[in-house]
Amino acid sequence: MNRYFTEQSLTLNASVQLEAAIQKHAIKVLRQGVGDHFELVHDGHAYDAEITDVSPLTVKLINDITRSVELPIAVHLVCGVGKGDKAEWIVQKATELGASTISFANTQWGTAKWSPEKLPKKLTRLQAVALGAAEQSHRNVVPTVGFTKLNDLTLATDQVGVVAYEEAAKAGEAAQLVQTIQTHPQSLIAVFGPEGGLSPQEVDGLQQNGFVPAGLGPRIMRTETAPLYLLSAISALVELQEI
């Protein structure tokens, strides 16, 4: 069953008139009609919605179908800006794997840079990618996509931070990620470099702000692969052991 996210407040048994974008997809694209159902989500709660009118699109919320699908750890990915469409790939797949926030940053050694004047359009596009991936993977929330600076990253009291560092992997560091996850933090910020990697100065700055270098296994991964590896590892270490 298709899932949509709405800005409308939802309560069981209520009738709700929905946004034009949802109407276009459900009625124009999927050709749904009165009596058909889809899933509707707002503020982390999902409902079985029955169409009662198609113009404007109006639904009645029949059942609360919310279930636990979010990672037990809120994961904020911070990725160095990469070349081409790597950002869209990261946002789509990281959303499917459970990231709660995805940020991008210009880095010293990155060959690609995002200019301030192009940021609004890029972030709007990436947020739309996150929305589509959240609907497809039946998430309860849509990750927030943003832009940051590495030296602006700080850790709150309930957060831990790791930086995926190629030199740590080369040196054989293999325990830090598991140790960090086993502390059961409420929130984790994980930083990844672009194709050229992070500079020693950037890593030093992150360490001064409480981030710890962590290897991601013995192989060197592409910039778009490493964040997905981390999310998969967290799911295996935390979610799958609870099933």
Keywords:
25% strand; 5-stranded mixed beta sheet; 6-stranded parallel beta sheet; 243 residues; Ribosomal Protein L25, Chain P; single chain; 7 helices; Alpha/beta knot; alpha/beta; 30% helix; 11 strands
In short:
This protein is an alpha/beta fold and 243 residues long.
Supply the number of helical segments. Answer: 7
Based on the coordinates given, report the CATH architecture of the largest domain.
3-Layer(aba) Sandwich
Shape: elongated
Quote the beta fraction: 25-35%
Most strands sheet: 6 strands, parallel
By CATH, the topology of the largest domain is: Alpha/beta knot
Strand tally, please?
Answer: 11
- List segments where confidence is low: pLDDT < 50 over at least 5 consecutive residues: none
Radius of gyration, in Å, reads 20 Å
Largest sheet, spatial ordering of strands:
8-7-6-10-9-11
Share of residues in helices: 25-40%
Q: Quick one: CATH class of the largest domain?
A: Alpha Beta
* Count of structural domains: 2
Tell me the series of helices and strands, N- to C-terminal.
EEHEEEEHEHEEHHEHEH
Average of per-residue pLDDT values: 94
Instruction: Classify the secondary structure makeup into a structural class.
Output: alpha/beta
User: What is the name of the CATH superfamily of the largest domain?
Assistant: SPOUT methyltransferase, trefoil knot domain
Q: What's the oligomerization state?
A: single chain
